Amino acid sequence: MNLHYVSNSSLDDIKSNIKHNIPNYSSDIPWLDEYFGPEPWSFPSKIRVEDIDLHMPLSSTVHFDLENTKKVYSTLKDITLIQACDERMWTYLAHQTFWNYMRERWPVESYLKKGKPEDAIRERYFFMSNKGRALVRNGIARLWWYGYVSYDEEREDPFELTAMLLSKLDIAQSLLERVFSGNRDITRAVLAVIHQKDKVEGIAVSRNVFRSLMMYINQLGGVTILDALVRSELETLFEAKLNSLLSED
Amino acid sequence: MQISSRQYPHPVLSYTSDDFINSDFQASLKNTKTNSLYIFDANCVTSSDGINELIKDHKAKFAFHFECQTTRYRKIFSSFDNDFSFNLPAQDIEGKVQICAFIIAVEDIENYELIEFHPDYEGYSFQISKGDILAIDAERSFFAEKDIDPLKRIPSIFSIQPNRSDDAQAIELDSSGNKIIIKLSEENFDYYKSISLNSNFQPILSSLIVIPALVSILETLRHEETDIDYEECRWYQVIVLRLKDFGIELDSHSFEQESTISIAQKLIGDPLSQSFSALMNLEED
Predict the structure, then answer these.
(1) B68, B93 in Cβ contact below 8 A?
(2) What's residue B150's pLDDT?
(3) How far, in Å, CA of A115 to CA of B269, rounded?
């Protein structure tokens, strides 16, 4: 298939009218064709990719994020960073190509009771205004970014660190919403030391220890330019800190 | 990377502190762009003999740190030379890119102690780790944008859309994205679409819709009544560029003194006079 984009004007329309369109987000089928009528609202890009068949979530806890990350990232591995930040592409995928998946994974009904469903729709089906966060909150874009920050071609299983990233919701959120997560060497170094502890040495890393490690990296980044260090140096630093945190835990 | 007045565990040569006496560090950067690359020419100088010695011994180096909030791109470019060049792929950055210039340690340094330190540090030495910041220059930013060019017209930063809410106002604004979205009630949007088919009426539509929106935006910029970082928005960059054409800088006396309505008329190209002219022609017809 060729990747499609929502046109600029159509994106402006549906994003401006989220509140009015809330009922449409309960539809069993994609609704933009009907909404725009005869007006063209999307266009094909030159990016040709294989069809992606996402795993349907089974429940609120069994959602196959790892399997779907593998599928989305493997298929779209070669897109540029600018393409990966294009709201028009992810909006099309969320509203059209993967509508059934979005309905199961991010059903609007679960937000109606909590109030402010338009904010939840903006966050999951579009890009929220915080650009850094938007990329890891959109229902489909997040799957690509999970793969991007964790894929490690040097490992026998390149998605081994992705599995670590998605093993606990807290890890993905804590790691990806930090500014340093734009540097893949840093994210992969963090995941590598956690993986070594948790999966290889069998020493559980608690939520508090992980958060303390994140705080340490933030503080360290204020004095040391982490981007100037190579991955092995980062791993050495993080591992030393993790060991000291685990001994205090 | 936001560099505020941080406290460091060792003396840092910086324009915000007096850790060093009679020393400074200045870094300049010029950029040109090809279709696929941003090419940067850097020049870095420090008057600190001690730091220059460390650079000569390859124990420290000059570095520029790039960070793009839109694409999450982060990278450092460094050299032991005062003058150096580097390239950045255009496909990796978009929007506001923050740039910080540093001198950083290339290796661990035991007993870091320089003659230029403030006298308060006399008798003290410090443990420096690889990557630690030794000097900082002022933070700067540039806007990486393939669509921003000096000829970009102001109307292109507006997107006029129907507001389909039951309680829609006649006209509303949303300036949180890359374009300023003007939302018209459905009835007004239908009028707008019909009238816009006649090119003679364009200046009248600009006067009715775009001018009030632009005045509202200029007032907001003047009073900074928002917590949105407008520098991230494409429309803001276009307005800044076009204001410069009229010798107006945001935060300057000229911007504060001139009325926003006259600035808006200038930016759009005097639609008021064109509207009167169109209406007079209409009467003659």
Answers:
(1) yes
(2) 45
(3) 45
Q: Where do we find the tokens 């205090």?
A: A248
Q: Rounded CA gap, A70 and A105, in Å?
A: 17
Q: Which residues of A touch B71 (CB under 8 A)?
A: 81-82, 84-85, 182
| Environment class of A198 (CB within 10 Å of its CB; exposed 0-12, middle 13-18, buried 19+) | middle
pLDDT at residue B284 is higher than 80: no
Strand locations in chain A, DSSP E? 2-6, 42-48
- Annotate A53-86 with b (16+ C-beta within 10 A) or e (fewer): ebbebeeeeebbbbebbbbbbebbeebebbbbbb
Q: pLDDT, tens digit, for every residue of A74-90? A: 999 999 999 999 999 99
Return the structure tokens found at B207. Answer: 């006067």
pLDDT (tens digit per residue) in B58-77: 999 999 999 998 899 999 99
Contact B234, B157 (CB under 8 A): yes
**pLDDT (0 to 100) of residue B245:** 87
- Binary contact (B165, A20; C-beta < 8 A): yes
Residue A161 and residue A186: Cα distance in Å, rounded?
Answer: 12
Structure tokens of A88?
Answer: 């028009």
Contacts for B227 with CB less than 8 Å, ≥ 6 apart: none
Name the residue type at position B226.
Answer: T
- The total number of residues shown for chain A amounts to 249
Judging contacts by C-beta atoms under 8 Å, the chain B residues touching residue A187 are none
Strand partners, B85: B41
Radius of gyration (C-alpha) of chain B in whole angstroms: 26
- Regions of chain A with pLDDT less than 50: none
* Number of Cβ within a 10 Å radius of residue A102: 23
> Average pLDDT, stretch B130-141?
95
Q: Which of B134, B140, B141, B114 is CA-nearest to residue B125?
A: B114
Instruction: For residue B181, give the nearest of A16, A84, A225 by CB distance.
Output: A16
Question: The whole model's pTM is what?
Answer: 0.89
The pLDDT score that the predictor gives to residue B152 is 55
User: What whole-number distance in Å separates Cα of residue A123 and Cα of residue A136?
Assistant: 9
* Chain A from 102 to 131: CB within 8 A of any B CB: 129, 131
